[in-house]
Structure formats: structure tokens, C-alpha cells
Design a protein that fits this description.
By secondary structure, the chain is an alpha/beta fold. It is built from 3 helices and 11 strands.
């Protein structure tokens, strides 16, 4: 009887050991999986924190740069020039309206115009004298697409999102961080092709006002181009290329405010 009990105990002990081993292994596996998941979560969190720190550093640098530029600009007495032209009915580079030369730390080029519902687009030509980081400001009604093209027609920057490098370049251009080499460029303004734009009363907008502003660093001379709609029968721009040079225009009768920030000036031009 004692021997039988002892054998029974032996069986029970062996079985218990087996179950205990399974429990321990399961526990170890669960702990390992939990640790791995925790490490992944920590890694993801660290990456997000690193990205946030990078964004904050970039924002701080951008803000410091903008403040420095604004401070330098405030010390400059700006001259303002203006011309009024009629746009060509053709939305081609060959029929582009010349808006002048972008000179680093010297000129700022401004365009004020509107786009009709069925217009194929407006095209403006400008020259970059020396390579540098350019900035483009745009204000106006929604539903417009803005593109910057090289002299050969290649798209350099595009306001339409999701187009890869050209969309990224447009974001840089808005921040004043896109480097443009010296040479000729074109600005093309078109309807974005999305659903009809509605005003606050729900009416379809058939004429979209806009203002564009190009600069490269600070500026000492402001050149304003007011581009009016073409008349019936108009072809190429009425004036010669030489007469289109903004630098040859007389000082405007202050229809635009001199020395204002880009946003303020564009707002005043569009909305009064």
C-alpha cells in the first residue's frame, strides 16, 4: 500500500512538473512578446518626438530668417512703379506678359489680374538676374492653379498637391526656400479644374481675382503690373518687349501702398 501511494505520488509529481514547464514557457513567451511590443512603441514614440523636434527647429529657423528679413526691409525706402497692360488672349509662353526682372535684394514683382470662367489661363514672363532663393506670395479667390515653368516649358513648381517634386517645390517657393537659377521663367495661372467655385451666397464665381508677388531677399523697388482682360480682336501684347520693361515705367500715383509687407500689399490691392 505504501509503495502504491509512493508510485502515485511519483506520477503526480511528474505530471505537475510537465504542466509547470508549459506554464513557465508560456509566461516567458508572453513576456518576450510584450517586451518586443513595448520596444516598438518606444521606438515609434522616439521617432515622433524626433520629427517634432526637427519641425520645431525648422520653424524657429524660418521665423528667425523672416524676422531678420523684415527688420532689414523696414530700414529701406521703397520706390514704387506701375504699369497697366492688356493680356494676350493666348495662354502660351510666346504670348506671355512681361512683368520684369527679379534682382536679388533689389526688386519685387507684383501682378494684379483676374481669370474668367472660360479662360485657358494667364501667362507672365519674368527673368531672374542672379540665382538665389525666391519667394512667391499668392492671394485671391479659391479655385486657381499656379505653376512656375522654365524657359523651355518644364514645370518647376506647381500649386496642385500630390505631384511629387513640383508640389514640394511650390511649398518651398511659398516659404522663400526655392533656389532659382538665372534665366527666364513663366508664371501660369489657370482654373484648377475642380468643382465650380461658389461665393458666400452660393453663386458660381465666374471671374477670379488674384494677386501674385515675387521677391528674392529684401527689395528696394516695387514693380506693379495691372493686367487687364484683352479686348475683342486683340492678339499679342500691344507693347514691344522693350516698352514692357517695368524699370522704365514712371513712378505710380500711389495706387498701391509703398513699403507694406507682401501680404498687406496684396490684400489692399485685392480687397481695398
Amino acid at each position: 500500500m505504501v509503495s502504491s501511494v509512493s508510485g502515485s505520488n511519483s506520477v503526480l509529481t511528474s505530471s505537475s512538473s510537465s504542466l509547470l514547464g508549459t506554464t513557465v514557457n508560456s509566461s516567458n513567451s508572453t513576456t518576450a512578446n510584450g517586451a518586443a511590443a513595448a520596444n516598438v512603441a518606444i521606438s515609434d514614440t522616439n521617432k515622433k518626438l524626433s520629427d517634432i523636434e526637427k519641425q520645431l527647429a525648422e520653424f524657429a529657423a524660418s521665423t528667425a530668417k523672416a524676422n531678420k528679413k523684415a527688420e532689414a526691409q523696414s530700414k529701406i525706402q521703397v520706390e514704387t512703379f506701375e504699369k497697366q497692360v492688356r493680356k494676350s488672349p493666348y495662354s502660351t509662353n510666346g504670348a506671355a506678359t512681361d512683368i520684369g526682372t527679379l534682382v536679388k535684394d533689389s526688386t519685387r514683382l507684383n501682378v494684379y489680374s483676374n481669370l474668367k470662367k472660360d479662360d485657358k489661363g494667364d501667362v507672365f514672363k519674368f527673368r531672374v538676374q542672379n540665382s538665389g532663393e525666391a519667394q512667391l506670395g499668392v492671394l485671391g479667390d479659391p479655385g486657381l492653379r499656379v505653376q512656375v515653368m522654365s524657359r523651355f516649358g518644364a514645370v518647376v513648381a506647381d500649386s496642385k498637391g500630390g505631384l511629387g517634386s513640383t508640389s514640394d517645390n511650390y511649398t518651398k517657393l511659398q516659404k522663400g526656400e526655392l533656389k532659382l537659377s538665372s534665366g527666364d521663367y513663366y508664371l501660369k495661372i489657370t482654373n484648377d479644374g475642380n468643382s465650380p467655385t461658389k461665393d458666400s451666397k452660393g453663386n458660381t464665381v465666374t471671374s477670379k481675382n488674384y494677386a501674385l508677388q515675387l521677391s528674392m531677399g529684401v527689395y528696394r523697388k516695387d514693380f506693379d503690373t495691372v493686367a487687364q482682360q484683352p479686348k475683342a480682336g486683340d492678339g499679342m501684347p500691344q507693347q514691344s518687349a522693350a516698352s514692357l520693361e517695368l524699370q522704365n515705367m514712371l513712378t505710380a500715383a500711389q495706387s498701391f501702398d509703398t513699403g507694406l509687407s507682401g501680404t498687406a500689399k496684396l490684400n489692399n490691392a485685392l480687397f481695398g
